[in-house]
Amino acid sequence: MNTQHEPYVEPHSIVRAIWGHPDAILLIFAGAAAEFALNRAVDWLFFTGALPRDPLGRLFSTAEYARTIVFADAATAERTLARITAIHGAVEQRRGQVIPEWASRAVLYMLIDYSERAYQLLKRPLTSYERAELYAVFRRVGVALGIGGLPLDYGAWRVARDRQLRRDLAWSGYTAQLYERYREALGHWRYTMLLGMQGALVPRQVYQLLGLRPQPAMRQLIHLYAGLAALGLRPYIQILLVPPAYLAQVRQLGAPSR
Which of 42-56, 123-137, 185-199 has the highest mean pLDDT? Predict the structure, then answer.
């Protein structure tokens, strides 16, 4: 039987619930923006110049790739994954080096971890079944991208994630450069909001290295925002929270229209 038109991710999967929620995606990339800046392989993200030139645009393009995979049929998702692999290969060829496998695992681990953390902030903790499903979907993505050494299940991944956070993060000059670019792109008060969201979201190792603080008050603000968004006020709040240059991209986040 031809299965190419079957969905890559099951329609009722928790992964679609997370990546179909525009606010969850914003939180995922608020967390990733923090951890990207600390990753020991962040120089790869600077190599093409795309990240320091337009860090927010780079994050939104990554979100669009992820959204395409999550909501696509199997054939479309596989083509998208092949395109990502080709892009990485071209960067490697230009630099004359291979992207370290541990660095690719680290990026995949961010997407898994912040997917879970974002949904918990906005909605509720995932069940054990949902955690296993979340990990299984992203492990499948990782295998398709040729990333080796991935744990077999969520429990083993949790151990590997904790080890990776201790081993692969460090403050560097790139960290300072990225945060300066975040500040320039967002402006003062939006940048302050980003720091607050990151302090409420990221693991302890990340907020300690960045000098952030846990933000119980920000958690309450996120819950308030979620309630206002449910009342249909999201477009108006986004005008305040998002720089005008990125507003159209933010409004395209979430589940694609049918």
Answer: 123-137
Which amino acid, 65?
Y
247 with 44: CB under 8 angstroms? Answer: no
**The model's pTM:** 0.92
Q: Whose structure tokens read 């496998």?
A: 101
Q: Where are the domains of the chain?
A: 14-251
Per-residue pLDDT tens digits for 77-125: 999 999 999 988 998 898 888 888 988 999 999 999 999 999 999 999 9
Please tell me the distance from the alpha carbon of residue 158 to that of residue 194, in angstroms, as a whole number. 26
**Shortest CA distance to 183 belongs to which of 45, 37, 38?**
37
